[in-house]
Amino acid sequence: MPDDPVADPLRSRLHALLIVGVLAVASLIIAFLGATPARVSATELLGSTRTAGEAAFIASHRGGGAAAPENTLPAISAALAGGFDYVEVDVALTADRHPVLMHDVTVDRTTDGSGALSTLTLAQVQALDAGSWFSDEYAGTPVPTFHEFLDVLADSSHRAIVELKGQWDAAAVAALMAEVTMRRLERRIAVSSFDARTLAAAGTASPVVPRLFILRHLPRDLVSAAREAGVRGIVVSRRALLDRPEIVDELHAAGIRVVVYTLNSNTQWDEVTALGVDGIVTDDPATLSTWQQSVAGQQ
C-alpha cells in the first residue's frame, strides 16, 4: 500500500513528541537522583571491619588538644597536618543558637570567661581568649564557629567526627547540616551524639551524612538498637567494651563499626586492638600512630 501523504507528517510529529516526552522524564529522573545522593556506607566512611590485632583508624580528640588549645583552629590544623585519619571536635550552641566548638557546658575551663555557653551570645563567645590557659603562645586564640571549622576541613582531604553536645532541636540540626551540604562535605563528616533525639533530627535533616551513637553503657540488644537508630557505628567507652568484648563481633556481623574513646596509653590501645575495634579516639594521635607502626613491625 502506498504511504498516506497526510499521515506521514502526523506520525512524525507524534514521534517527535514521544521523544521529547521520554527525554523529559529521563531528565527528571537524573535530576532527582542527582539531588538525592546515596547514603554514605560504613565502609566508605570508616573502612572495612577490622580483625583482632589489626590497626584501628585514629581520631584526634578535641581537634588535637595535645598540640594546641582543644577545639581551636590551631589544634585542628595541627591534627590535619599530622595526617591522622579523623579529627574529632565538639560543637555546642550559644544563647543565640550559633554552633561553636566547645566541649564543656561552661566556658570557664578553656577560656578567660565564665558562665554557661548557652547563656552567652556568639559575639560574647568570640570575644573570649581560648588559648592563654594552654600557653602564652596561643594567647588571644578565639573560640571557632562551626563554619570556620568546616572551611579548614574543606581545604584538606581529611575527615571529621563532629559530636553535638547536649540536646539539639530540629531547626538547629538542620542549619548545621545545611552548612555541611553547602561545602559538599557530606561524605567526609560523621555526626555523633549521646542524645538519640539529636541523632534522629540529624537523620531527618540529611539522609546522607552518617551518624554515630556515643554510649557509656551498652543496652542489652545493642545491634537492634543501632539498626533502629540508623547509625553506621557506635563510639563507646573502653570499660563498657571490655565488659562485653563479644559485642565487637556481633556489631561487625551487622555491618556496624566500633570506635572507642578516649585512650591514651599502650595498655589501653593493646586491649582494644586485640578485640578488633575499628577506631580509637585519643589525645595523643602521634604516639598512637608510632605504637601501631611498632606493633605492625613485630608481627
Question: What's this, in brief?
Answer:
By secondary structure, the protein is α/β, with parallel strands linked by helices. The chain has twelve helices and nine strands.
Can you give a write-up of this model?
It is built from twelve helices and nine strands. Helix 11 links the parallel strand 8 and strand 9. Helix content is 41%, strand content 15%. The chain has two domains: 1-36; 42-298, Phosphatidylinositol (PI) phosphodiesterase (TIM Barrel), CATH 3.20.20. The chain has an eight-stranded parallel β-barrel with strand order 1-2-4-5-6-7-8-9, surrounded by four helices. It has helices at residues 7-35, 42-46, 73-81, 122-126, 146-154, 170-182, 196-205, 222-229, 238-243, 247-253, 266-273, 285-298; strands at residues 57-60, 86-93, 99-101, 159-164, 189-193, 211-215, 233-237, 257-261, 279-282.
Task: Annotate the secondary structure layout.
Layout: H1 7-35, H2 42-46, E1 57-60, H3 73-81, E2 86-93, E3 99-101, H4 122-126, H5 146-154, E4 159-164, H6 170-182, E5 189-193, H7 196-205, E6 211-215, H8 222-229, E7 233-237, H9 238-243, H10 247-253, E8 257-261, H11 266-273, E9 279-282, H12 285-298
Helix pairs in contact: 3-5, 6-7
Sequence of secondary-structure elements: HHEHEEHHEHEHEHEHHEHEH
Secondary-structure class = alpha/beta
Which regions contain 5 or more consecutive residues with pLDDT less than 50? 1-34
Total helical segments = 12
Q: How helix-rich are the residues, as a percent range?
A: 40-55%
Features:
2 domains, 299 residues, 8-stranded parallel beta barrel, TIM Barrel, disordered N terminus
